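Students often ask why inverse folding is considered easier than folding. One informal answer: many sequences map to the same fold, so there is more than one right answer. In these notes we will look at a single instance of the problem. The structure comes first.
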C-alpha cells in the first residue's frame, strides 16, 4: 500500500525493552502511585508523542489495564454526577417528581458499579477494531497487545476530561482519539495517515450505521402515523 510518502516511525521489533524506560506509571519510581498517575496523565495529555515513545511494549499488561480502570471509573463517576445534577435541575424547572429522579439516579448507580467491566470490554473491542484496520491498511509491526497498551493509556488519560461538566464527554472522545492516533504511530511505527485511518474510519462507520438506524426508525414512525 502506498502511504503517500509519509515519514514512517522506524520500529525495531528486536529492540531491547530497556531502551523504552516506560511512562512514570510503569517505572519502579514513582510507579503505580498517585504521583505516577499524575505524571503519566500530564505526559499523555500534553506530550503524547513523547509519552508513547517511552511506553513499554513488552511485559505484563497490569500497569496499563489498572491505569485505564482507575481513571475510567473516576471519569465515569463524574460523568454520572453531572448527568444527575442536570436531571435534578431540569426536573425542578419542569416540575418533575422525586420518584422519577430517584429511578433515574438508581440506573446511574448501577452504571457506576459495572463501569470497570464495561470500560475493559470497550477497550478490548476498540483494540480489536483498531488493530484489524491497521492490518487491512498495510500491517502492524507489533502484536495486538501493543495496540491494547495504547488504547489503555490514551483512553485512561482522556477520562480526566469527564471532570468538566456538560462538554467533558465530547472533549474526552476527541482527545482520546487524537492520543490513540499518536500512540499507534509511535508504538506500532506506522505512518500517521494509517494510524489516523485505523482510528477515525471505525468511528465514521459507526456514525453512518447510527444515522441509517435513526433514519429507518424515523421513517417507520412516520409511516405508522394516521
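Output (designed amino acids):
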Amino acid at each position: 500500500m502506498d502511504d503517500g510518502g509519509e515519514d514512517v516511525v522506524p520500529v525495531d521489533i528486536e529492540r531491547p525493552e530497556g531502551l523504552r524506560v516506560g511512562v512514570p506509571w510503569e517505572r519502579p519510581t514513582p510507579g503505580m502511585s498517585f504521583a505516577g498517575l499524575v505524571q503519566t496523565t500530564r505526559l499523555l495529555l500534553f506530550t503524547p508523542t513523547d509519552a508513547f515513545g517511552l511506553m513499554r511494549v513488552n511485559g505484563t499488561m497490569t500497569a496499563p489495564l489498572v491505569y485505564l480502570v482507575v481513571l475510567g471509573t473516576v471519569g465515569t463517576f463524574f460523568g454520572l454526577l453531572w448527568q444527575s445534577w442536570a436531571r435534578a435541575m431540569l426536573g425542578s424547572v419542569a416540575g418533575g417528581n422525586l420518584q422519577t429522579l430517584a429511578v433515574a439516579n438508581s440506573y446511574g448507580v448501577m452504571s457506576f458499579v459495572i463501569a470497570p467491566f464495561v470500560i475493559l470490554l470497550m477497550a478490548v473491542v476498540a483494540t480489536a477494531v483498531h488493530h484489524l484496520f491497521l492490518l487491512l491498511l498495510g500491517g502492524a509491526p507489533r502484536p495486538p497487545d501493543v495496540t491494547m497498551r495504547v488504547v489503555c493509556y490514551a483512553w485512561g488519560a482522556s477520562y480526566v476530561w469527564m471532570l468538566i461538566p456538560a462538554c467533558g464527554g465530547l472533549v474526552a472522545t476527541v482527545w482520546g482519539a487524537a492520543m490513540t492516533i499518536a500512540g499507534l504511530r509511535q508504538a506500532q511505527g506506522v505512518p500517521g495517515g494509517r494510524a489516523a485511518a485505523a482510528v477515525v474510519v471505525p468511528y465514521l462507520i459507526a456514525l453512518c450505521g447510527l444515522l441509517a438506524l435513526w433514519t429507518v426508525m424515523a421513517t417507520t414512525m412516520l409511516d405508522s402515523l394516521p
